[in-house]
Write a structure and sequence with these properties.
It is a single chain. This protein is an alpha+beta fold. It has two domains: 160 residues, no CATH class; 154 residues, no CATH class. Helix content is 24%, strand content 32%. It contains seven helices and 16 strands. It has a five-stranded mixed beta sheet with strand order 1-6-5-3-2. Strands 8-16-15-12-13 form a five-stranded mixed beta sheet, with no helix packed on it. A four-stranded antiparallel beta sheet has the order 9-10-11-14, with no helix packed on it. A hairpin with a 2-residue loop joins strand 15 and strand 16. Helix 2 runs antiparallel to helix 3. The protein is elongated. It comes from Halotia branconii CENA392. This is DUF1822 family protein.
């Protein structure tokens, strides 16, 4: 425990809490129905205000008024302390007290966050300390000993700022027959490639035949993936099947098919699912006699993932949100 305190003190950044921040926090607290809820909103507001001041000092633009933590309805119905950073996302700013060793992170803040900053607020509400940063949280208690220095926060924001914006394919819209550009029904895309000799299917098994579940609730879309001159005249077809299940779960089945003059997929072509952090979640690799390869998993509403199709040093990534 002593080592933890020493490490935190090494990279914690003390900052004053402005009078304006205290005034706003009290105004928000006065609108709450119970003393407990008022204190929660007060501390959340102060934590967001301090992080907002810090980012402005670092010349990082913020939009505090667009944050859920500044929304009276969200204050009343949730326990959020987010700070909107334009073109980057939402940063969660969680308050802790002087002697806390863990930080409470409510489940409603586990998604749609670019990271978490822990803010220690003293009892006088005059001063705060930015204790550190965490990129991901998946439990309700975050040990303070696991925090990274604030430099990791700045690096993370810079990485997101300079990264090209991802185009997200919204799978939930497929159920309403709203599809993103490039995605077609399996039947229409199959008809298209069969009408072009270089793209004709040579597989003994058609994509429709390989899906066992033919429920009307299932939605399928397909897209041609061009991996470049390494497999010229042999684009592959990515098929995504989604099926709604109970408890806001969605069953997702991915298949990669050959559409070229060869009977099988190119050996060692890979189908990979990446989680939101970019880590490999599932992976399949074509062998010498595979007509297609397949991956299947479940996800929750608003969960993000990416699908990577790769061959040698070429790769294509499609980004999805459920």
């Amino acid at each position: 425990m002593n080592n933890t305190t020493y490490d935190l003190d090494n990279f914690a950044l003390p900052l004053p809490i402005s009078q304006a921040a205290r005034k706003i926090a009290q105004q928000f607290a006065n609108q709450q129905p119970t003393p407990e809820k008022a204190q929660q909103v007060r501390l959340n507001t102060l934590a967001v205000s301090v992080v907002n001041d810090y980012l402005q000092m670092m010349e990082i633009p913020t939009a505090i008024g667009a944050s859920d933590s500044w929304n009276p309805i969200m204050q009343l119905s949730t326990n959020v302390a987010d700070l909107e950073i334009p073109s980057i996302g939402r940063l969660e700013c969680r308050p802790v007290s002087l002697h806390d060793q863990v930080c409470l992170v409510p489940p409603e803040t586990w998604e749609e966050r670019v990271g978490y900053v822990v803010v220690q607020i003293d009892e006088s509400l005059q001063e705060a300390k930015l204790l550190g940063f965490s990129r991901n949280v998946t439990t309700e208690t975050l040990p303070l000993s696991q925090l990274q220095p604030l430099e990791a926060l700045i690096d993370r924001l810079e990485q997101l700022r300079t990264s090209p914006l991802k185009t997200l394919v919204n799978l939930s819209q497929w159920f309403a027959n709203q599809c993103d550009a490039g995605w077609q029904t399996v039947e229409s895309l199959w008809d298209l490639v069969e009408s072009q000799p270089a793209y004709a299917f040579r597989s003994a098994v058609t994509p429709e035949a390989t899906f066992l579940n033919q429920s009307e609730a299932i939605t399928r879309r397909a897209k041609l993936i061009d991996l470049g001159i390494t497999i010229i005249d042999q684009p592959v077809m990515l098929i995504v099947e989604i099926n709604p299940e109970a408890n806001q779960q969605t069953n997702i089945c991915l298949q990669l098919h050959s559409t070229g003059n060869q009977l099988y997929l190119p050996t060692k072509v890979k189908l990979i699912v990446l989680d939101e952090s970019g880590a490999v979640f599932l992976e399949a690799e074509a062998r010498s006699a595979d007509n297609y390869i397949q991956l299947q998993f479940r996800g929750e509403i608003q969960e993000r993932f990416s699908v990577q199709v790769s061959f040698d040093d070429m790769s294509i990534i499609e980004n999805f949100i459920i």
